[in-house]
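Materials and Methods. Structural model of Trichome birefringence-like N-terminal domain-containing protein. The 433-residue sequence of Trichome birefringence-like N-terminal domain-containing protein from Cannabis sativa was retrieved and submitted for structure prediction as follows.
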Amino acid sequence: MKPPLSSSSSSSSVLRKPRHLSPYLFSLLAFIVFVAILYGEDVACVFNQQLQLGSDSPRYFTGPSSLVFGVEKKREKALPFAIGKTDPSCDIFSGRWVYDESRPLYEESDCPYIQPQLTCLEHGRPETNYQHWRWQPNGCDLPRFNATLMLETLRGKRMMFVGDSLNRGQYVSMVCLLHKLIPEDGKSMETFDSLTVFTAKEYNATIEFYWAPFILESNSDNAVIHRVSDRIVRKGSINKHGKHWKGVDIMVFNTYLWWMTGLKMKILRGSFDDEAKDIMELSTEDAYRMAMRSMLRWVRINMDRKKTRVFFTSMSPTHAKSGDWGGVPGRNCYNETRMIEDPNYWGSDSRKSIMEVIGDVFRKSKFPVTFLNITQLSLYRKDAHTSIYKKQWSPLTPEQIANPVSYADCTHWCLPGLQDTWNELLFAKLFYP
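The predicted structure was written out as tokens:
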């Protein structure tokens, strides 16, 4: 039986009051629930590493909030391949070198993929101290490089290093860090013009290097014959190389050393096939800015931010002027077996203006790029270069033999050595951004 529609006037008044207020209560409750859900998701993001926080290092650029020498904190969705995060108070690129007897991570003689230009022990280097240094960030530790995790992550995928010979050294280092887990008949390395491909057959994975010292098309693009003193870069030409990069899952770019030809850079408007070439000159910084913008535009158009990762390795320093670190004038890295201990050391060959260009361009990027700031930590390592302990491109003259400083290579790095640390940093930012 239905209850009576009305009883006493007092009870009727009581019943009507909540009915009159219920829409407002409902709206208020709905708003509270919405806010709770909204903030609940933010809390979940924090604990599930869905936030990408910057720091006071130029290592990660996500957009307008990023500055090259002081990144503001900004929320960002979890990056592909991330399984954790680095404590935002820890700058893994700021720290010190610690001598570690457990290093190197592999032996020179055990990695057949190292170019003879980087096998320092094979070419007579008398000591191995340069192999035993481990990078120790201030206030935290780098995650230990896990070759099994790296290979499993690369299963069915492509990883590519694009750039110059410094990036090729980092590429070879990565191959050396991984190849021991792969049986001899399950791996191969082949070169196709500018492209070198290491294949892990069981994993259906490739680790590749593509020679493009300027990222854009240039007259130095021949992977073997590229010693061109009058360097020219073609404007708007990134697709010349970029067509070979499509489908890559993890990309590591670098470009710096080849731009350092002076204060100006020759830029070609048009084609290298044009009979009459239209060439203009730009400052090195403006030319470099042009290349960075082209690279980021290509990345935004051709890579999926939900599935792929892009890294950019900062300038690799040289140690060609001993006067920079208070050494004997006129000398260089030759016979240097100790690192530079001044934490504020910055060599004259490393242009801070280029770092500023990177910061200015990358902070406007609509695609997240992880910046591997290896410059400062590498600046300390004047002991880690190949120096004279490498295969020489041409026979040495008697004058050179009498003066080793004259032909010491203070640009490239012995392997195993410093560049293994670059890959440890890459590993950390790939899995724990």
